[in-house]
Amino acid sequence: MPAHPAAPALRRVTDLARDRLDVADEDLSPYGHFKAKLSTRLVESLRAKPDGRLILVTAISPTPAGEGKTTTTIGLADGLNRIGRRAVIALREPSLGPVFGMKGGATGGGRAMLAPMDEINLHFTGDFGAIALAHNLLAALIDNHVHHGNALGFDLRRIAWRRVVDMNDRALRDIVVGLGGTANGVPRETGFDIVVASEIMAILCLADGLADLKARLAEIVVGHRGDGAPIRARELGAVGAMAALLRDAIQPNLVQSLEGTPALVHLGPFANIAHGCNSVIATRTALKLGEYAVTEAGFGADLGAEKFVDIKCRASGLRPSAAVVVATVRALKFHGGVEVKDVEREDLAALERGLPNLERHLRNLKAFGLPCVVAINHRAHDTAAELELLARRVGALGVPVEVGRHYADGGAGAESLARAVVAAAGSGPAPLRFTYEDDTPLWDKMAAIATKVYGAAGIEADAKVRAQVERLQADGYGRWPVCVAKTQYSFSTDPTLRGAPSGHVVRVREVRLAAGARFVVMICGDVMTMPGLPKVPAAHAIDVDDDGRITGLF
After folding, report:
1. What is the pLDDT of residues 89-136, one digit of tens each?
2. I want to staple 338 with a disulfide (CB 3.0 to 4.6 A). Which of 277, 333, 385, 462 is the partner?
């Protein structure tokens, strides 16, 4: 096999673990030379150690002009290490849906990048494959049970467990299984979601260990009987085999930045259709191994940061010490009405019009009680006048703003940002405020998110959806958090509404119970849990040469 193209710049993962994290070889399961899993024994042994400071990186509402949240997360951690602070990165794993679709990979960019980039963006250590296998095993057990007499009494119209695949494939959204005669099972309608929307992905991300994982898997509601009573995964005898498939996937993966900063890259639900955070286990481990743990939440702060606080922090007890809000001049001009082809031109008026998007995200984070720093991810076409306008307007809100040049200069370009984050984080986390209380009814929780975070006038749903919510409330799920699935491109459910729209109504289209993850999903607007590929997918640009080098990943 040819040497990895980035190998000369990387440290072997065993050396990285020993020298940067004080982790011995016996607590690593290497996958080649540059990536490894950390043992469950190590994770458990770290519980008694004190925590470092948790830094949450989030962003403005995403645009086609680009923001660079992962790039900034990596650059900030590199910058923290350069100023003498021991930092560890905790990020989500890339999904092949975006890699081959529209968004691309998830390893950062320029000189603020994780490596080995191609391996992380493609098969990595097989975690997503294990999740898909465990999820689809449960689906197969359901259909097998029905085929062999349906002793549990599944109502075939109310089987809730779909199948998953880690690829954008709109043709699989709605399908019929069991065709071809009695030997092939009982025909029924079902469909596929993308792996990142799997409840098993959410369960793994929130589980506290193997015992908690199995307890959560057992509680998955896969369907209902004719009288409406739930049928759970444990009744199908599925839990042990699913846990066996997931045994290694629960262990965090260790890689590094181009500057040798350790990075725990582990699991990865999307924030537009799931809860958008890497695993609790990886985040906690990073907090034990570093003075600072730098993590991110998916998409803009209205989706990712809200779920990080209201779901992940609520469930785990994690408390951030500060938040970094990433923006680019070009993205703010897009929110101000400029089209992508024109965002590189200086336009102070458009920048002014786009600033309310950033300002609302900052207000939301302050409402959570989080000290904030704004990171302007510098691009070559930013002008001095635009950067001065941003510094003045953001500074007037009492929020530090720093221009990060980490894309071009790596950690050296993020040293000022790192110092600002250290100052904002102070001596540790401040009291965290949630969007709603545990005992707030489910419908009112959704309304609180829509009005307080999205700036909406209210929420609505048809009678069938309202009845589902009321049934879940009556069945004892009312104390659980709400996970909103909606477009990432706007505070509203209309992806074309840029900036900071207000007064809109959020329509709840569908409700799904995630009993193992212990939250209720409310699907709003036209968002799909199985995305489609764009007209020109990123897959067209990806290739491998005769020496085995992969090109076209970004």
Report:
1. 999 999 999 899 987 788 999 999 999 999 999 999 999 999 999 999
2. 333
Rounded Cα gap, residues 375 and 145, in angstroms: 53
Which of these, 366, 367, 292, 356, lies nearest to 327 by C-alpha position? Answer: 356
Cα angle 417-419-423, degrees, rounded to a multiple of 5? 115
Q: What Å distances lie between residue 222 and 232, 281, 353, CA to CA?
A: 6, 26, 47
Question: pLDDT, tens digit, for every residue of 364-413?
Answer: 999 999 999 999 999 999 999 999 999 999 999 999 999 999 999 999 99
Query: Exposed, middle or buried, 359 (CB in 10 Å: 0-12/13-18/19+)?
Result: middle
Classify 220 in phi/psi space as left (phi over 0), alpha (psi -120 to 50) or beta: beta
- Cβ–Cβ < 8 Å for 375, 296: no
Q: Could you tell me what percentage of the chain is helix, strand and coil, using 3-state DSSP and rounding each to the nearest 5?
A: 40, 20, 40
Rounded to the nearest 10 degrees, the angle between the axes of helix 199-206 and helix 127-147 is: 130
DSSP state for residue 458 in the 8-state scheme: E
Residue 51: DSSP 8-state? P
Write down the pTM of the prediction. Answer: 0.95
Residue 472 Cα distances to 228, 230, 252, 441, angstroms: 12, 11, 33, 10
